[in-house]
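Field log, afternoon session.

UNIT: design team B
ACTIVITY: writing a sequence onto a fixed backbone
BACKBONE:
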């Protein structure tokens, strides 16, 4: 068979590879996609042609085998530092597997959520979806994806699904450790900023705080438990209300670093000395934790690693072809307490 002249390196098409190997473009696609039904000798010949021609397949060529799109969806509700870090880890792992990550916002509180999700999955051939909270906890999201035959990885779900894998961390134990550290330094009147209602992390982090307080026999003052929805602006209002209480708290635990930064700002506005009169701690170890002063003591969450593991579950198991293994995978990643400048011993007169 006459072979096509080799083009410049890196500029080959699937047709040129097929001509060089003496096979059809569909056979090349099957080799690229690691499909069955191709003889070992033919597979080796195609791979040699790919290497010689420095061929890099595009999505259209790779999809000729029919059952793969190489697209993974990342669906989220709110943007922010968490999403940015998570996305970085997921993208890195997808690239290693020649997958492409598509990032799409979905408003969890919208009355049109189901319609929007149906429209989205109807337009895209997705091999899998990664769901960030609170989307990972919404039955309508799970049901819509299941009806469309799209497998999903749930991030930090409040209720695990029997048919869907999850990736999470032990937030409750981490905040218990964080609260215990404040108690060890003599703090007894401690405020707590909750995140968004109905969010798994919100409940787990508060429970960790309550565990430590109860273990020491301390009551939790309802005035010092405020809901800041993980946002700086609302955290600022929460902190002002806490610092207006009498007696005021000697420490504030915030459910994320944005709200902790807001507590630092409120304390300065109200002329409360940091950290001598008020210790502040956060959660996530987001970039802001090292940018504010005093630098925040916080819980370092391996957000990038969580994104990487979630993408790895889809690339490793290829659930769109084979379904999830039984039992479905559960991945639990460790957290780390990071001590910085925002914590000091409780004031002597507290």
């Amino acid at each position: 068979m006459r072979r096509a002249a080799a083009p410049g390196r890196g500029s080959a098409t699937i047709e040129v590879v097929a001509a060089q190997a003496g096979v059809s473009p569909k056979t090349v696609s099957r080799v690229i996609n690691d499909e069955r039904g191709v003889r070992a000798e033919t597979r080796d010949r195609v791979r040699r042609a790919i290497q010689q021609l420095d061929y890099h397949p595009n999505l259209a060529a790779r999809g000729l085998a029919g059952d793969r799109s190489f697209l993974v969806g990342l669906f989220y509700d709110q943007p922010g530092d968490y999403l940015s870090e998570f996305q970085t880890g997921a993208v890195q792992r997808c690239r290693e597997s020649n997958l492409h990550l598509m990032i799409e916002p979905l408003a969890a509180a919208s009355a049109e959520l189901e319609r929007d999700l149906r429209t989205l999955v109807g337009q895209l051939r997705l091999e899998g979806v990664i769901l960030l909270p609170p989307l990972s906890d919404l039955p309508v999201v799970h049901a819509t994806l299941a009806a469309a035959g799209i497998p999903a990885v749930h991030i930090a779900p409040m209720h695990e699904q029997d048919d869907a894998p999850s990736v999470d961390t032990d937030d409750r134990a981490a905040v218990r450790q964080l609260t215990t550290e404040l108690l060890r330094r003599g703090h007894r009147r401690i405020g707590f900023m909750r995140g968004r209602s109905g969010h798994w992390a919100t409940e787990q982090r508060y429970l960790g705080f309550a565990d430590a307080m109860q273990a020491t026999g301390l009551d939790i003052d309802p005035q010092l438990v405020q809901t800041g929805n993980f946002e700086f602006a609302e955290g600022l209002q929460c902190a002002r209300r806490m610092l207006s209480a009498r007696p005021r708290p000697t420490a504030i635990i915030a459910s994320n670093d944005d709200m902790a930064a807001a507590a630092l700002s409120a304390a300065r506005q109200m002329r409360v000395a940091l950290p001598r009169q008020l210790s502040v701690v956060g959660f996530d170890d987001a970039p802001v934790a090292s940018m504010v002063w005093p630098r925040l003591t916080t819980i370092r969450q391996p957000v990038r690693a969580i994104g990487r593991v979630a993408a790895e579950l889809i690339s490793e198991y290829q659930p769109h072809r084979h379904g999830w293994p039984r039992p479905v995978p559960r991945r639990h990643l460790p957290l780390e307490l990071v001590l910085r400048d925002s914590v000091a011993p409780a004031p002597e007169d507290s």
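LOG NOTE: Residues 1-9 have pLDDT under 50 and may be disordered.
NEXT ACTIVITY: expression trials, pending approval
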